[in-house]
Amino acid sequence: MVTASPAPGLLPLLSANRDFRLLWLGNLVSVCGGWFSAVAVFAMVYAHSGGALAAGATLALRYLPGLLVGPWGGVLADRADRRLVMLVCDGLLAALALTFLLADSRASLWLVYPLTFASAAVGYVFQAARSAWMPSLVRDDEYVLYSAAVQVNGMVFQAVGGLAGAAVIGLVGWRWAFVVNAASFVLSLVLTARVTAGSRRGGGTTRTPWLASLREGLRVAARTRLIAALLCLEAAFCLGLGGTITVMTHLALRVHDLGDGGTGWFYAVQGVVGALVLLTCSGRLQRASPHVRLRVVGLSCLLEGLFTIPLGLPSLPAVTLLLWGAAAASDVVYGPTAMGALLSATPDALRGRVTSLWSAVATASLAASAAAAGALLDVLGPRLLPALLGTLMAVSGVAWLALFPRDDGTAKAGR
Question: Considering the entire predicted model, what is its pTM?
Fold first, then answer.
């Protein structure tokens, strides 16, 4: 239930709010299963194909549904019972996780591609429903804590989930990882079924055509100054961020020669630093005024850009990891503050469509940036490319600080 007064921090919120805690735990176990599944899929693809091209195609198919399906998932989240949508998606994801076992041969490996696309598509619909329903389980002035709670799941399992998945797969085989993933979705379904509070339905009506509902969300997002600015910032910021992931992989495997698992060091640093910053700073971010939080959004972009610019300069691996950690510390406060502002500016009736649009913009920018960075890396080199990507993020932050010097971010869409 929603508390009578705002929680002072992330852990008190989880402790006091039973309904929110149940949904958070469901998300936690499904994220854990997702890491196991991701490791298992790539292990299976390499085992039966022996090539990196198949693995790259599988990764691309994880992004594509975010653009093709994600926005329609937002329309569904504003028209249907959001809890029911999540329950159905959990059941489908559990079944799809087990169906991956049918691709366990060279002849049937092709099944990995439609199954990956279908799983990602259902996942984006689930995410749209969760993003529309879960914020209603907390107070309006706890939106920053809500976003931090969701983000810390990814940070923790980014730090340990991939390594744990690899360890388990090494002990019992990658096939069991699909079983673990299916079980995680079943557990998520059970936890979600115990929650009945919150705003389970948006303002959409089944009598309104789907395309008209989608257009309504796009129109409100375009006409609401803060939402439109946040979407533009997300697009520019992720254009820089996506490429840095490609650069990081090159630095770990080719420049610093950290071995086949070298990227794990970078992910571990990012996950540990991100989780610690969220746990220690989320309460302060929540208590800050909307005006201050909007400035934090811009400062986060600016500082991450500045720490990314020298990432490719000749240095010891420890120095590069230190810069990566500093960039991660700057980046991790962007999500809660930006999402808090987005939710404050969006009425519940449109929350599914607006948050899905946010996700689609981020996915498109990350995918485009990662692909472009891969093509430009051989041309520009690992020294110049991080400087350009960091500059893009820093300039985005400066532009935001200049654009929103006094906006308090509290205006709702349509007012």
Answer: 0.81
